[in-house]
Amino acid sequence: VTGTLVRTGGCAVLAVLSAAASCTAHRAGKAWPLPAPAGLDLYMPAPEAAAITPALIVLGQHLFHEQRLSADGSMSCASCHRPDRAFSDTVAQPAGVYGRTGRNTPSLRNVGYASSFAWDGRSTSIEEHVLHAISSPGELALPLHEVAGRLDAVPGYRDAFRQAFGGRRSRRDGGASARGDARPDGAPDDAHITSDRVALALGAYIRTLRSGDAPVDRFRAGDIAALGANARAGLALFLGRGNCAACHAGPLLRDGQFRNTGVGWGGPDAGRALVTGRPEDRGRFATPSLRDVACTSPYMHDGSMATLEEVIDFYDAGGGANPYLDGEITPLHLQPYEKEALLAFLETLTGAGGCAH
Amino acid sequence: MLRNFAILLVLVPAAVLTACLNEAGRGGTAAAVATHASDIRTWRAWSGEGVDLSGAPSPDGKLLSYVDWETGDLAVRELETGAHRRLTAKGTWQDSEEYALASVFAPDGNAVAYSWFRPQPDQLIHYELRVVELDGGEPRVVYSNPGNVPYLVPMAWSPDGRHVLTVLYAADRTTQLALVDVASGEAQVLKSLGWREPGKAVYSPDGGFVAYDVPADGTNSPRDLFVLATDGSREMPVARDVADDRVLGWLTSGELVFLSDRTGRPGIWSQPMRAGRPAGAATLLVPDAWAVRGIGAAGNRLMYGVAVESPRVIAGAIDAERGGVLVELAPLPHQSADRHGPLDWSPDGRALAYTFRAVPQQAALMRVMVRGADGGSAAREIEIEFERVRHVRWSPDGGSLLLVGAGPQGRGGIYRLVLASGQLERIAVNPPGATYARSPEWDGDARSIRFLRHEPPPAPTGLVSLDVASGEERLLRALPPGVAAARSPDGEWQAVIVAEPRDRARLEVFPADGPAAARTLVHFDPDDAHGGVNWQGGLNWTPDGRYLIYSRSQLDGRGTVWAIPVAGGEPRLLFEDRSIAEVRLHPDGRRIAFTRERERFELWVLER
Q: Which of A114, A291, B233, B488 has the most CB atoms around its CB within 10 Å?
């Protein structure tokens, strides 16, 4: 199911989806774990509540483009997490249905490896965060109790849910049926649509959004020629004097931490402090992965920097001064050729599929 | 050019290192037997000198792979008879600085996979994964990735023989649990662990799962225990609590055996497992299992090491002028199983600071102990997030300590610990591929630090000065790779011990701030009666500037400490000891302290 197909209309697409999902191979096929592109871990965390199958992934992919999941039917997840932009957006702070998030859209690629979600880490699972995005007034703004009814009204969805959840019962299931068609034992039947099942399907699909096999992965695997001389010099800076790897480390070039870089300091967004309530967490935001970073402009949690050159200049100058500035950030005094080398290295982080796949 | 222990100390995790620093020699077998629960029997399988626990048991439990530190070769020992033989033949240390480290047996018992230190022209630190057959033949390199993976540790060989479960240490200091294909050498990363360092990882008997332990949080906290499917499909925490939990082995009966201090005292526990999940409650097999480290399982036998001697701070007093000691050397009073690290006297001579790790929480944060110089009661203990510390140096004002080693996130560099607040500040990070700064000391103005830097070419090696405020580094004098350095009390002279080819070295003196030629005081040759230079021994001036104190060591760990007149003359023997690490002279020029790094283990077997 492609974005083009999805935009052609719900019923027709669901017919296609149903047909695909009812294919025996898809229904019975083993999807998990997914093969890992070069450079990525084989293990990716996933809920045990619903086994990830091709049918669940297909349903999730469709729901990802489903505009009925927004209050006014105008937006879907894909409106901001654009597949042609490595599942990020081109605008600094996209508008939701009833306003703005005030934050830049992070890429969803490889997000399945994370243990916290959103710039402030407010969610601890993809499924939790999906429900937050659907219901948040600044995003899709659809009350969760309306989710099942919206989808249930569309022919094909019940079949798709039956294919995706057939023979299983989610631990998270158990809510009242939109049509009162619970099984005699009180459990929802296989075709039952709930917001939790929507989240499980979306989570399954999002976990398939992986990006690897980038030039840097081939280099790390021992293919020295995968990086040019300038990019290799950039890597040395990245690991050494540039101190980038103090935060952007591991296969995803992120550390799972929340850091205060000074971006947006003094503005309305308190960052991690919104979750913890601790003053020292004000201005801290999640370290983003740098994979596909050349595809995901603009940058920073508020989208305030349009180019990677601006980002490099920002860190070269020592970040944004404030009382809680992360201790890893100090002036670097990079030479112009060193900045070019860093940029060349960052451009080698784009996965084999490019920005759009 | 760098001796083996020098390299070991810059990168190798402490858990591995402890085993490697055991002294060479020949131990016997022992027959001590102890009983615990009614169905548990334990006995000592190897004790005495030369016990090395860097390897693993063969599947039938009859052999143990280990490193013969006389040459650095991989070897196997028959546990029943004590007979042993080398599987590699690298020659002497003068012939080659390469050596074996961690090793695991193939499931058929006919081959051993092992890590092998093999520096590259542009990589000071480089280990590769090799395999050698027990019946002879040339070792085969299975995995080598210079620059990207400077260090690796084989943990276990898969029951189907296809993979070696290996911990890869990436250039950004993060670690990965990887399955290295024995035939193709391809590495599939199973799980990345960030800056956390796995302690031990083992396969389930059916090969479907691996159990491993990692610090629960950060790089240096109590460990939790997890079981991960080898197809990457799922992971399950087995022990996730405030206790320190460490994998010991997975028996063919299905029991996962681990070390835990969950009762407040360390014990060996058994967790029944089924399909990669706990099946019932864990039971205590052996209580009060102090200073235990995992070796592995052979069938339903668990093999583990017990430390019978741990690194200790030793103090006494010397007579530099006449030679000999004024006060006999003796260990500082401390809990016996605690492991002591580097030390330094305070500038006013009233206190001694040293690092240590306490038991029973072996993975607990490293601490700095500050106590009276007379060895009296502890004044203060400060926890530090360090994996390993190479040097401790007190600041001239007595308010802080310089710590050189692997700090938070395993990042090698120079740090400052402010004693009043306990705050740890990073001063400098090692450049990629560089070894730790050696022999750091504050310049007189307390604004800059001078130390020996060793980086891969084309970076110059030598004595450098680091301006702490600006971070600017200046090469004071290009030198061969350095062993130790010390500036004279009047600041006029600089003494250094530098390496020479074939494991030799020399002690020389030159003006501290000038290009004048150096004057050599001593040459060190490993073939001398007292051995070569002690790479960890350090270098001190006496307060009057008349003598330099240095150390020599022999392959079997015996060491000597000497005083040589700077003006010329024969060196005086001060004392002999074993496994001497960085000697520090008290400001009074008489009292002296060092860490005796000798750590001896016994190999024990547990059977139900």
A: A291
